[in-house]
């Protein structure tokens, strides 16, 4: 099976390297890894954040292991050349619309959570974030107003098929867990959100076993901190999901702990930590690779049909943490490679 490894920028290469070590240890010679350029690194080497060769590799692969994109050297570039366009372009080109972001507190990390330990202990949820639509892909531009003011705009839109497709993933994910789905929108203000809510309610007729609730995104941000244990599965749009999953990560100890899978309708997937490229600590061995290692476990489970191997990696991460493995974001001093060593030793 072919894995496209796209390390990207900043800490992306460091964390991806550790995930590849763990994948090789667990799968032997089952997987072939082929590396591609993406993000700012690709722009610098090939003049585009998502070169055709990378797209071709991604299309040929069984799964993609993605590090992170974002490079301050590229801040002045036109938007279509910025590193972040690589991840948006990959999601769109491969139809990767369902981004699953589990947030769970490893008990050993209760002291690292931004929440009181008894509140943090309850967090065990999955955010299902739509990643093919919303303001990220709507018409955008800038213009001058009638009175000569500069104005930027990003059009937010969803059609009912896009909403139904991601809502179905939400219902199915809830069915495989504790049976609760909370749909998050801003239906009191936004037309897209009103449509979102209507479509979710219509689809709920097919899922009478799922306890469905709705919440406005501002309230959801507050409830995630107040009582994260009330959530099982959250389904939401691209922008709200992007923001809420970063927030959830701090409830679960660190943004360095949260993996993700982004799937298309044939379960080909892109697997990446939810964190970005963290240029401030790039190349210093300070990055926590556990989110990427846990993303590789999701890859084994969702795209490669290897659930036992996925369980092994997740158990090894838990064992490494129980044994005291801590990178700086978790209050420790271990390097990126030492964190990888600890997981390998625990396998
Ligand atoms: N590994 C995640 C990453 O590189 N994030 C950078 C980014 O710009 N992400 C945009 C998004 O997730 O929509």
UniProtKB/TrEMBL annotation:
<feature type="binding site">
    <location>
        <position position="101"/>
    </location>
    <ligand>
        <name>substrate</name>
    </ligand>
</feature>
<comment type="subunit">
    <text>Homodimer.</text>
</comment>
<dbReference type="InterPro" id="IPR004429">
    <property type="entry name" value="Isopropylmalate_DH"/>
</dbReference>
<feature type="binding site">
    <location>
        <begin position="276"/>
        <end position="288"/>
    </location>
    <ligand>
        <name>NAD(+)</name>
    </ligand>
</feature>
<keyword id="KW-0560">Oxidoreductase</keyword>
<dbReference type="InterPro" id="IPR024084">
    <property type="entry name" value="IsoPropMal-DH-like_dom"/>
</dbReference>
<protein>
    <recommendedName>
        <fullName>3-isopropylmalate dehydrogenase</fullName>
        <ecNumber>1.1.1.85</ecNumber>
    </recommendedName>
</protein>
<keyword id="KW-0432">Leucine biosynthesis</keyword>
<comment type="pathway">
    <text>Amino-acid biosynthesis; L-leucine biosynthesis; L-leucine from 3-methyl-2-oxobutanoate: step 3/4.</text>
</comment>
<dbReference type="GO" id="GO:0003862">
    <property type="term" value="F:3-isopropylmalate dehydrogenase activity"/>
</dbReference>
<feature type="binding site">
    <location>
        <position position="218"/>
    </location>
    <ligand>
        <name>substrate</name>
    </ligand>
</feature>
<comment type="function">
    <text>Catalyzes the oxidation of 3-carboxy-2-hydroxy-4-methylpentanoate (3-isopropylmalate) to 3-carboxy-4-methyl-2-oxopentanoate. The product decarboxylates to 4-methyl-2 oxopentanoate.</text>
</comment>
<keyword id="KW-0028">Amino-acid biosynthesis</keyword>
<keyword id="KW-0464">Manganese</keyword>
<keyword id="KW-0460">Magnesium</keyword>
<feature type="site" description="Important for catalysis">
    <location>
        <position position="136"/>
    </location>
</feature>
<dbReference type="GO" id="GO:0000287">
    <property type="term" value="F:magnesium ion binding"/>
</dbReference>
<dbReference type="InterPro" id="IPR019818">
    <property type="entry name" value="IsoCit/isopropylmalate_DH_CS"/>
</dbReference>
<feature type="site" description="Important for catalysis">
    <location>
        <position position="186"/>
    </location>
</feature>
<feature type="binding site">
    <location>
        <position position="242"/>
    </location>
    <ligand>
        <name>Mg(2+)</name>
    </ligand>
</feature>
<feature type="binding site">
    <location>
        <position position="218"/>
    </location>
    <ligand>
        <name>Mg(2+)</name>
    </ligand>
</feature>
<feature type="binding site">
    <location>
        <position position="246"/>
    </location>
    <ligand>
        <name>Mg(2+)</name>
    </ligand>
</feature>
<dbReference type="Pfam" id="PF00180">
    <property type="entry name" value="Iso_dh"/>
</dbReference>
<dbReference type="GO" id="GO:0005829">
    <property type="term" value="C:cytosol"/>
</dbReference>
<keyword id="KW-0100">Branched-chain amino acid biosynthesis</keyword>
<keyword id="KW-0520">NAD</keyword>
<feature type="binding site">
    <location>
        <position position="129"/>
    </location>
    <ligand>
        <name>substrate</name>
    </ligand>
</feature>
<feature type="binding site">
    <location>
        <position position="91"/>
    </location>
    <ligand>
        <name>substrate</name>
    </ligand>
</feature>
<comment type="similarity">
    <text>Belongs to the isocitrate and isopropylmalate dehydrogenases family. LeuB type 1 subfamily.</text>
</comment>
<dbReference type="GO" id="GO:0009098">
    <property type="term" value="P:L-leucine biosynthetic process"/>
</dbReference>
<keyword id="KW-0479">Metal-binding</keyword>
<feature type="domain" description="Isopropylmalate dehydrogenase-like">
    <location>
        <begin position="2"/>
        <end position="343"/>
    </location>
</feature>
<keyword id="KW-0963">Cytoplasm</keyword>
<dbReference type="GO" id="GO:0051287">
    <property type="term" value="F:NAD binding"/>
</dbReference>
